[in-house]
Fold these 3 entries.
Entry 1:
Amino acid sequence: MLAYVETRKETKVADDGNRRSITFSTEAASGAEAGNTLLPMLIAGLVLIVAGGIAVMAFV
């Protein structure tokens, strides 16, 4: 699976007059690792919803 990571780089001037470079990325902002996504939880949730719907329709 390919992961999309957007990176943005900004240069800020600190209080002491020195320039500091700060790099922002979606991976760093979310705290997740590239291989660790919520896709398995999404699939499991959808399976449970479908199973619940089938169970409700069986009794109605």
Entry 2:
Amino acid sequence: MRKFHLPEGYGRTIAVITCLGLLTGFLDIRYALGFGLGALASILLYFRNDSFWSDVLDTGTSTKYTGIFHFLINYLIMAGVLLAGAFLPQFFNIFACAAGLMLIKISVIVKEAFPNIRKGGKE
């Protein structure tokens, strides 16, 4: 069984950003629900991509059709989150859903923009 992992320090950054996003529930519960839905999808997509690319690298073979269905499913997941925000505005805020989908990207930017966080602020 494959062990999924995040690079060192990213799990904590993702958790902090997710908590901050969920705290928007004090403003409007739809913000927190939208962000939470997007964040769950973002984390799911990260692990799907990790598994897919690990398998491609392990097999050592690739064709021009490698991953076409993988990426189709990824885009369907992202579209499903945004459609949930669009068609169920009483439950989800679409902009919060989009922000949640960018969770992994935001965490990478934060970790690289502030490298001292990785070392606990000490150099």
Entry 3:
Amino acid sequence: MIIELICTPFFLIAQGIVSLIPVLDKLPNTIVDTVSLLTKAMSFFPPDVWVMAIGNIVFWVALHLLIGLIKFIVGWIPTMDGG
């Protein structure tokens, strides 16, 4: 009962934020155009090639973000900047 009392405001805030998301009756033109472009691209290369390519891109972007974060943290701490 106490946990419900503590969690109720968080659930109300989350419900309010979710209610602000508009309901899409139809897809915007940009999404439809992207899907039609991907269906044309899938006719040239099989899906596993696309999964590997997108996975590779996501991996390298995440790696660069992680390296940048590590460099920022190392440069932020005065005793670890190497100089």
